[in-house]
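Researcher: We're teaching a course module on how sequence relates to structure. For the next exercise, students receive a sequence and then see the predicted structure as C-alpha cells, so they can try to spot secondary structure elements on their own. Here is the exercise chain.
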Amino acid sequence: MSKTFNTLARWTVDQRWAVLLLLAIITGISLVGYIDPGLPYRLYDKLVPAQTEAVDENQTQSADRRVVPNVSPFTLSRSDVVLVVDGEDFFTEVNAKALRQVVDDLEALDQVGQVVWMDLIPPLNIFGLPEPLFPRSEASATRFEAARQKAMQHPLVGGQLLSNDGRTLLMLLSLNFPHVLDDKEATDLIRLTAENTVKQFPAAKLTFQVTGSVPATIAAIESHEANQLKYQLIGYGVILLMTVILFRGVRAVMIVAVAPVLGVFWTLGIVRFLEYDNNPLIDVILPVLISLVGLTDGVHLMVQIRKLRAARMPEKDAARTGIQQVGMACFLTSLTTAIGFGSLAMADSEWVRQFGMCSVIGVCLTFVSVVTVIPFLCSTWLGRKIHVGLENSLIDKNLSRITIIIDAVLRRRSMVSVLAVVCTATLFAVSMTLTPDQRQSDGLPEKAEATIALHHMDKAFGGLEFSRVDVSWTDAVPSDSAEVLLAISEVDDLLKSESLIGRPLSIRNLIDAQPGSGPAAERMSLMELLPPPLKRAFFTPERNKAVVNFRVQDLGIAAYGPVFERVESGLAAIKNAHPDFNFELDGGAVWRWRNLYQIVVDLAKSLGTASVIIFLVLAIVYRSILLGLISVIPNMFPLVLTGAYLALTGYNLEIVMVCNFTVCLGIAVDDTIHFLTRYLEERELTESQDEAIRKAFTGVGTALIMTTTVLVAGFSTVIFSESRDHKIFATMGALTIASALFGDLIFLPALLGRFAPKKKAKQQSAV
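Model: And here is the predicted structure for the students to work with:
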C-alpha cells in the first residue's frame, strides 16, 4: 500500500497535466448535473429504444363481480387545509353570524374549493332535510344552548369538528390547486381572510390558526430551503474563520479550503443525476458534512507539508513527501468513513438510504480532491510560503503543555485503561435504554404555525391525524347481517377504552344517531336510512368491508406503541369471537409504529456492521488483531457518551439520531487512525514504546486538535436551525467529535501503553 501512495505522490506532483485533465473531467460531469441532470437519461433512451409489453385485457378486469356505486363518500380525514378556530362560545348570535360570513368569504377565494364545518354537514337520514346546527334567525339563549347540545351529540361534530369543551372548531378546506399561485395563498391568505372577516363583528372573539397536510408540507419545505443556503454559508464562513485563526497563514488556508469546496461542488453536481429531491439530509447536512470530512484530511496533509517546508524542503519534495507520509492515513479515514455512510444503505427509510449513498459518493470524490489538489497546489509557486505563520500557530505553541497530559496518562496507564473500559461499558448500558420514537411533526419547524396548531389539536380533539381499523368478512356473512354491526361495535368499544385514542367514528355511530333503539339485529336495517355519501364513507357491502376511524395525537410511537399492542390483542380476541371476520390496524401512525422499529433495527445493524468492518480493516492494515481491538474503545466511547446524553436528557431514539451515530462513527475513527498510523511509524524508529506514543502525539496532535475544533465549529452552526432534526443532528455531531478527541488523547495512549504488542527485537544473522 505504501508503494501505491509513493506512486500517487510522484504522479500528483510530477504529472500536472494529467491531474488537471482529471479535475476538468470530474468538474465537467458535475456541471452537467447542475445544468441538465436529465441529459444522461435522454441519451440512454435514444441509444436503447424502449420496449413495450402486451397487456392481457383479462388481467385488467376486476375479479369482483359486484360493482361499487359511483358515490363520493363524505370524509373528515382528508382535507388540504384545516382552519382551527378558537373562541369562548360559538353558540351565540354574533359568533354564528361571524362564522357563516367567514365560510362565505373563504369559499369566495379562487383557491378554495369547499369548506366543511359543523353547520354544513350532510343530514343523517335520507328523508331528512339539511338542518343547520346554528339557528338561522335571531334566537334566544335557550335555543342556542339546545343547538349546542345537539352539536355535541352529533356523531360527525362532537369530538370531530367541535372539541369536547366547545372552545375549538374546525373548518376543513379543499383547495383548487390550479388557482394556488403562491404558498401563502394556501396558508397565510386563508387565515388573514378569516381574521379580516371577524373584524366586521367586534363582539366576536375568535382567533384562527392554519394547519393540515398542505400548510405542514409548505412549512417543512420553506424551512428546508431557508436552511439549505443559510447554514451552508454560515458553516463555510465559520470553517474559513477557524482555519485562518489556527493556521495563521493565508496561503495554507486557501489551499486547504479549495479541496473540500471542490469536493462539495462535485458531490452536489453528481448526486443531481440521482434525482433525490427535497431530502433535507442531502441538501442541508451533506454539504457541511462532506466539507468537514474533506477539511479533516486536508488539514492533516497540510500540517505535514508545512512542517516539511519549515524544515527547508523544496516545494515539490515537500508535497511529494507529505502525501507519502499522510496519504495512507487519509485513505484509511476516507475508507472507514465511507463504510460508516455506506452502512446506511441497509436502512428501510428512503431518506436515510439516499443520504448514505450520496455520502459515500461525496467521501470518495472529496478524497480524490484532497490527495490531488493540495499536493498539486503546494508543489507550485503557491507552496513557497505556506509555512509562513507556523511559528505563531496557537496549537503548536501550546502543544508542549498538552504533552503533560500524555505523560500523566502513561504513568497511570492501567487505571486509565480500566476507567476507559468501565466508562464505555456503563455509557453503553445507559444508551441502550433509548427506545424507538418518531413524531409527525419532527420534520417541522417548532415555531411554525402549522406545528403550533397541530399540538393544539392534540389537546382539543385527540389529534389531527387519523388512523383506522379495517374490518372485512367472508361471503359466508351477508353484508346486512347483524354480526357485521356487532363486530364493528366491539371494535368501537375497544378503541374507546384507550385514553390516547380520539373518539372513534364508524357506521355504528351513524346508526346509533337514528331514532329508536334495540338489538343489533333490528338496528342493522337502519343502514338503509343513511345517505349514500355517509354510508359509503364507512361501509362498502360490495367489498365486504367496513372501517372504523380514530384520531391519534402527535405523541410519537414510543407513547402509542403499547396502545397499538393492546388494540391488536383486543382485535385478535374479537376475531376469535367472529372467525369469519378480519381486523387490521392501519394508518400513518400505525405504519410508523410497525416500521420505525425495523428501521431502527436496520440502522443499528448497519452501525454494528460498520464497526466490525472498521475493526477488520484496521486489524488487517496494521497486521494486529490486538491493535484493532484497542481501537474499539476510543471509537465507541464518543458514540455511547452521546447515546447516554440523549437518554439522560429525556430523548427517545429517532431515525435522525441513529443516522448520526453511523455517520459519526466514520468521522470519529479518523483521529484514531491518524494516531495509530503515526504511533506505528514512530515505534519502528525508537526502542521505547512510551516515547513512540509521545512522538505520535507531537506528530499528529496539532492536526487532531485543529480538525476537532473545526468540525465542532462546523456542526455548531446547524444547532441554530429552526428544524428540530437539524438541531439534534448538529448537537450530537459536536458532542461526538469533541468526545472522540478526548478518547484519542486520554484513553488511546493508556490502552496502547498497557496492551499494545511490544516491538520485536531485530535479529541479526550470523556472519
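Model: If you want an answer key for the exercise: The domain at 2-33+218-440+595-755 is CATH 1.20.1640.10 (Multidrug efflux transporter AcrB transmembrane fold). The CA atoms of residues 13 and 299 lie 18 Å apart.
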